[in-house]
Amino acid sequence: MIRVFFIFHYEKELWRAQIVKQTWLSQGGEALDFWDKATWHQARSNERHLELIDTAIDNAHVTAVLIAQGTSDQGYVQYAVRKSHQKCKGLLAIYFHNIPDEQGSKAPIGNARFGDIDQGTGSGRAFFWQLYPTHRWIIEDGPRNLKQWIAEAAAASNLRAASERARH
C-alpha cells in the first residue's frame, strides 16, 4: 500500500486538502494524518514544524503537494519538497484551487516554483517542474485519476532510488 504525505498551505487550504485526502482513502490508499490546526499552531516554532514534516516524509512513499495561491511561498512546503527529493520519495503536485471550499468559493491558482530543490547537495540546480509531474484536479479529473498519479510517482521514486544506489 502506498502511503502519501499531503503538504499544502495549512492556514488556507485544509478544507480542500481534506477532499483530496478523502478521495485517496476511498480508493484504498493510505494517507498520513493531517495535523489539525491546533497541532500545527501548538508546534509554534519553525523547528517543531520541520520535525513534524521530517517524520511524515520518513513514513511516506509519496509526497503530494497540493497547490493554490501562496503554497509555494510557504517555507515549510519548500522544505518538504526538497527533503522528499533528497530522500528519493515520490513527488507530484496537484493544482487544487478549483475545489470549492466550505463556502463554495474557489481559490486563485498558485504555482509550482519551489526554488532549487537540490539546494545544498552539490549536485547542481534542479527545479520541481523539471523533474516531477503536476496535475490539475478539475481539468484532469482528479477524483478518477488520483490513484494513477500517485502510483506513477511511487514507481518513479523507486527507479530514482535504484539509480542513486547504483551511483554510490
Mean pLDDT: 86
Name the poorly predicted regions. Answer: none
Could you name the CATH topology?
Rossmann fold
Q: Which structural class matches the secondary elements?
A: alpha/beta
Distance between the termini: 28 Å
| Main sheet: strands, sense, barrel | 5 strands, parallel
How much of the sequence is in beta strands? 5-15%
Explain what the structure shows.
The protein is α/β, with parallel strands linked by helices. The protein has a single domain (3-167), classed as Toll/interleukin-1 receptor homology (TIR) domain (Rossmann fold, 3-Layer(aba) Sandwich). It is built from six helices and five strands, in the order βαβααβαβαβα. It has helices at 14-26, 37-43, 46-59, 75-86, 128-131, 142-167; strands at 3-7, 30-31, 62-67, 90-95, 134-136. A five-stranded parallel sheet has the order 2-1-3-4-5, sandwiched between helices. β1 (3-7), α1 (14-26) and β2 (30-31) form a beta-alpha-beta unit. α3 (46-59) packs parallel to α4.
